[in-house]
Amino acid sequence: MSDVTVAAKRQGPSWLILPGIVWMALFMVVPIAMICYVSFWTQTTFNISSTPTLASWKQFFSSDTYTGALWTTVRIWLIVLATTFIIGYPTALFVGLFVKSKTLSTVLLVVCVIPFWTSFLIRVLAWRPMLGKEGAINIILLKLHIISQPIEVLLFTELSVIIGMSQIYCVFMVGPIAFMLGRIDRNIIEAARDLGAGFGRIFWKIIFPLSLPGVVVGAIFVSVMVLGEFATSGALSGRKVNLLGNIIVTQVGSLKWAMASVTGVILTVFMGMVIAGFLRIVDLKQEL
Amino acid sequence: MESRVLKPMLAVYVVAFILFLYGPFFVLWILSFQQGPDGGPQFPITEWSTYWYRQIFGLTPPSRIAPLPVGEALVRSLILAFMTMVTSTVLGVMSAQAFRRKFRGSGFVFYLIVLGMMVPGVLTGLGTSLLANNVFEITRHWYTTAFATHVAYTFPFAFLVMLAILNRFDSSVEEAAWSLGVSPWKTFRKVTFPLIFPGVLSAMLFAFTLSFDEFPRSLFAAGGTEDQTLPLAIYGTFSVEIHPNIFAFGVLTTLFSFALLSVYGILMGLSVRRARKLAMQEEIA
């Protein structure tokens, strides 16, 4: 055996990976396989038995409640993806490209992260006194005489869910985009400017394409989190907006495990398609 | 040049963005000082008071509003976060060590682990509770099933942090130790571990905070009320009427996170300083 392989063996014997593989297989792969399996089980009033049936699948696709939840999930996901991108990109542009001092950009990123030190559920709840009929936004708008009647659609509607999710998840867009923008070689931009390109042209031809991997990573983060959501939609819509996640929670609450599993499988498949789609746009392994 | 116009405009935008991020928190902080026990969770503030803070610590006379059931839940959450932190950091260091050389299927294993931070908690939670109920026929608890799903979620973060640290690691110091006949385990303990310690701290911080705040996995994988973790206790108040005590509690947990991060910052600063000191001693010698 050559010295190199001996050194490599000592550095990291490959059995060290085994506990990690076993843990992930046992507590992630097997549970998801179990969801797929149980989605074909027979549901009785309070129990499930392993007799295979397609009943729950048929029920899902023939009920407006369930297919409606699927479309609501898709709609909210697309809207939140758009809002987090629109809200986040300018911030990322400023932090990643326009701020010259390293300290200031770090400080700005830390400022963006601080809200995450508050519990997720309390962050969601904090929107209620903000958006309500007697909430902060209505009070301020009334004081400024911008409106004469309090806006009531702000809370317990789809809008409040979108506002809440946009705020909670936009930072996941800002981070990756700012990171990619920060890596752009400033000389390229200088060169383009020397050759007479205006900012618009520089942005569309250089800056935006180079930031695209960051956008994709951010979009994956946001998608994964929004698609698995149920707390924000439950707390800010007054149970009016039902996402696939909400369906799973209520079905489990009434011990309808088979239906919860069907919903889980649909969520998994959809999410897989979304992630695969994003990874097609940009080859992440090459970019990072 | 447009940047003379654009930069100030973007700066103003970023200020607005930060206001958007922090707006709800300002409201939360203000309303946590609402008068109690009759003041509601909305404006206007009838009278400034610290009633709701005192209520959390049980310092107020009993009233029609029950105090938050957070005492035991907090202890459970802290223990669970600690267990998760230790387990996922150990797994993370081990796996990242193994990844220092290429092995067959390393690409697949990488994705298997990283998938753990992507799969929504609703799904792993649901699957784990199905397994526990129907295959193993065990009762779900926060320290068994919920703990397993928490680690499956935080271990990928610890793994990625350690991978980033070990990628930049100069292995010549290890080789020096081996050539002097030091055993691999002792080399790891005395040479490698002290050098990667800042990374280990970051991995621990990630795992602890993620587990402490983890909600969907606990909701499905933990059992009944005697298994409530802190996020579950907070969630329980969602369905009933909200009182400012939940806001006061939010402020307190934020302060707790600040304290935790300060401890992390101090430990980090100490380890960096120690590393510098060692380097200087070496130079002198």
- Unreliable residue runs of chain B: none
Kindly report the spatial arrangement of strands forming the biggest sheet of chain A: 1-2
Q: Main sheet of chain B?
A: none
Instruction: Indicate the structural class of chain B.
Output: mainly alpha
State the oligomer: heterodimer
Assigned CATH architecture of the largest domain in chain B: Orthogonal Bundle
Q: Radius of gyration of chain B, rounded?
A: 24 Å
Write up what this structure looks like.
The complex is a heterodimer of chains A (288) and B (285). With 288 residues, chain A is mostly helical. Helix content of chain A is 74%, strand content 1%. Chain A is built from 15 helices and 2 strands. Chain A has helices at 3-11, 18-38, 55-62, 64-98, 102-113, 120-125, 128-131, 136-143, 158-182, 186-194, 199-227, 231-237, 244-253, 257-281, 284-287; strands at 42-43, 48-49. A two-stranded antiparallel sheet of chain A has the order 1-2. The two termini of chain A are 34 Å apart. Chain B has 2 domains: 3-56, no CATH class; 71-242, Orthogonal Bundle (MetI-like fold). In chain B, 74% of the residues lie in helices and 0% in strands. Chain B is built from 11 helices and no strands. Chain B has helices at residues 3-31, 51-56, 71-98, 106-118, 121-134, 142-167, 172-179, 184-212, 216-221, 230-239, 244-284. The radius of gyration of chain B is 24 Å and the shape is globular. The mean pLDDT of chain B is 86. The chains are: A mainly alpha (288), B mainly alpha (285). Chains A and B meet through helix 1, helix 2, helix 4, helix 5 and helix 6 of A and helix 1, helix 3, helix 4, helix 5 and helix 6 of B.
